[in-house]
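Risk register update: the risk of archive-format incompatibility is retired. Evidence:
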Amino acid sequence: MRHLRIGRRTFVAGCALAMGGLFAIPARANAVIGRATDVRGKVNLKRAEKEEGLATGAQIMDNDFVRTAAESFADLQLADTRILLGSETELLVDSFIAGQGGTMELGMGQMVFDRPEGLPKIDLALRTTFGMIGVRGTKFFAGPNRGVFAVFVEHGQVSVDGGGVQRLVGAGEGIEIARPGDAPTQPVVWKEARIVEAYASVGLTR
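Archived output:
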């Protein structure tokens, strides 16, 4: 499978174009919001300009930047929400409040956001260079898949904004974005083989 690689500089520029400017990160004391429940391979965490290896059991705080190397995976537990990161993935946890939501940035790579059904909905925004993903308590995949940027929703619903177009993606559906600035395709039902393939990219067995 061909991976889309997006550098940090390109990612930031894309967000600025897509959103009319970057979100400002307010100065505040970092708060512990979760921990790394499983780390496989080489995974680094950058906090307050200091970068070091991330180990299983380590704390995750607001404004932490997590980067996985090739053939490496990270499983993060943020309160009731699980975040799985595939290899060569960059994620900035901009802000996260248990039970409420927050904002995150997916710089490159792929992830699965998993919040169990039946829990109260939260409002979370996931920024990517391909557009904005709005989440309200759900399980979804986002990242490179079959040569495009894709979003697949297992349960719940997300909104995907890109190229001046918004798509609502429901359970069992996925969309594609070929290039930054392009509009998302119309949602279509994904076949099981593609779902398995997407989840495997973050080390998750369906």
